TrEMBL record:
It comes from the Bacteria. It holds the Pfam family YARHG. It comes from Crassaminicella indica. PROSITE patterns: PROKAR_LIPOPROTEIN. The lineage of its organism: Bacteria, Bacillati, Bacillota, Clostridia, Eubacteriales. This is YARHG domain-containing protein. Residues 66-144 form the YARHG domain. InterPro entries: YARHG_dom.
Amino acid sequence: MQFRYLSGKNLLILVFLISIVLSSCSYSKNTNTSSNEKQLTSIKKKETTIEKKKVEDDIIFLLNNYEFNLNKPFEDNVLKNLNANDLAILRNSIYAKYGYIFSTKKYSDYFSQLSWYTPTSKYAESMLTNIDNENIKKITDLEKCLENLQFKSSKLGFSITFPLNWKGNYEVVEDSMGIIVYFKPSKKMEAKCGEFFIIVNTESENYYQDIYDTIGSMRFFEVNNTKYFIGVPTDFPLPDNHPEKELFIKMKLDIPDILETIKPL
């Protein structure tokens, strides 16, 4: 067998060709690695974008015939129409849109019925935006105001909360057997008039069911083995020419929601 020796020039050419081949392989490997890293980064960005989009998309929350966009500032004049229970639900809806897991069954059951609610252990307070925090503050401020509009009677054993738009326009008269809620006109009248509703012990001598109508879904409720009747006058309890007649009629529309706030103490 004969070996042919390469000249110095040919040897240089061979080394150069080998280095090109090796460089090409290395480039190909680096290119593939770089491509894979870019693909993974793209997937992660896409997943983050999808999660972010879920929060950024408008979520329209229907509550008590009002629409609330959970990603925009709530209107003060609309919030004032909500009772204490509605305000609590609306406040918790802000946490619900981020998947907050509620320990209270009432809210867990409520939000589980909504298509946009997806519970997740990844929830963190840092997810809340400036708008979220602003809306939460508005609601909590109103909830504090409503505490001052709550009538509590340890004697009767129950409480009832009136809405903000009733502030200064109503009066509660209490005795040992129940309460009567009256309209409070801006100008004092000689005799009480404008009765909104009555809550009276069914054992009371003043319990005249025939002169009262029912309103809403509540007619009776029981607290500490005491049964109470709820009724509104069958006639119009204000003079037809009363200057605040329209306000009285508007306030009467809130009575069903007010009665829903009755709670035993």
